[in-house]
Amino acid sequence: MADSKLLKMLRDDLVGELNAINQYQAHIDEMSGEAKKTLEHIIADEKEHVAELTKLIRKIDPVESEKFRKEEM
Ligand SMILES: [Fe+2]
Fold this sequence. Notes:
Helix content is about 90%, strand content about 0%. It is mostly helical. The chain has a domain at about 25-60.
């Protein structure tokens, strides 16, 4: 698979993870008790997925990697 196609798919997946975080957070803000604690655990997993996808994108896209490196300084 060409890198450009792979990157598009990974960026689409990243958007999905970010949208999931926003949706879970909106629900968490309305909840309490066990349901809230469960979604807080799930949202932490989604944030890990964002980090994993971002790491992978950086490995494939040298421009993205350089932008992150520059911002982390
Ligand atoms: Fe996820």
